[in-house]
Write the structure tokens for this entry.
Amino acid sequence: DSGVTQTPKHLITATGQRVTLRCSPRSGDLSVYWYQQSLDQGLQFLIQYYNGEERAKGNILERFSAQQFPDLHSELNLSSLELGDSALYFCASSAGQGGNEKLFFGSGTQLSVL
Amino acid sequence: GDSVTQMEGPVTLSEEAFLTINCTYTATGYPSLFWYVQYPGEGLQLLLKATKADDKGSNKGFEATYRKETTSFHLEKGSVQVSDSAVYFCALRDDKIIFGKGTRLHILP
């Protein structure tokens, strides 16, 4: 058990809808990262938050947004969903924001857009 | 921009065989390098890391050496087990973490 909790584990929805994925980091970790894992694109970095502030941005679509709350949990919002958004979405956390930080990953949320 | 390229899978080996999974990178700075492993139905776990040139990371019988001259970080294990069957991701971290696409490893008993 990594200590990172993601909910829900599975999500099935329709095109055009909006969903929210939730992540609770390990106790004491200040950074939260979001990744999308699809069969053709591999693991893609979406965005990182550190202590409530956006720290780094990757290949995140404009239809997607995220935030980190004062209690350090994070939510990833996906809107106007398309079939191609179906993927496994991982959250990870680390204690700080440095380059040698060890990341701890949650088990992921499997999103299926029908 | 920075990138990571790793060998395409799947890789299928018999138990006790020697394993190499190739990984090369491009980076403008001096990144740290990582190997992560994803077992079926689970999230990723850090397997090993190296933070500077010529460093060797090792864990659970796996090794990888940070080779700046060849921009490589190949993963090796001398004798694989069925329990090593998983997806392996090479990654680098400069200002953000970038992963390779992953290599699925099947070990046959």
Chain B has a mean pLDDT of 92.
